[in-house]
Amino acid sequence: WFNTTLNVWRRLLDRDGKQLPFIFHADAKAEYEDGKLVILYMLREKEIYHTVAKSVRCMLVSLHRSGDMICGTVDWSGTMGTVPDSVNFLHCLAVSD
Hints:
Layout: E1 2-3, E2 8-9, E3 28-32, E4 36-47, E5 50-66, E6 69-84
């Protein structure tokens, strides 16, 4: 999150001040309803020396204010599916009812 008072980027922490288990290379991010952040990323699955597939993973994070900071809580994290190694994200769009 961006601290507008100090004009610096801050890492998202949980309410106890510990860093969240974020992936530093997110393939796609989107704001979801009710102040939640969705992060999509892919991890390569290797078979001996060759990458054969990627697992598509998702992290749903609730954002809340704590004093002068923004904190996050991981609500859900998991693998959504597997795709061939040649697949990449082009765009990410949050859609609601």
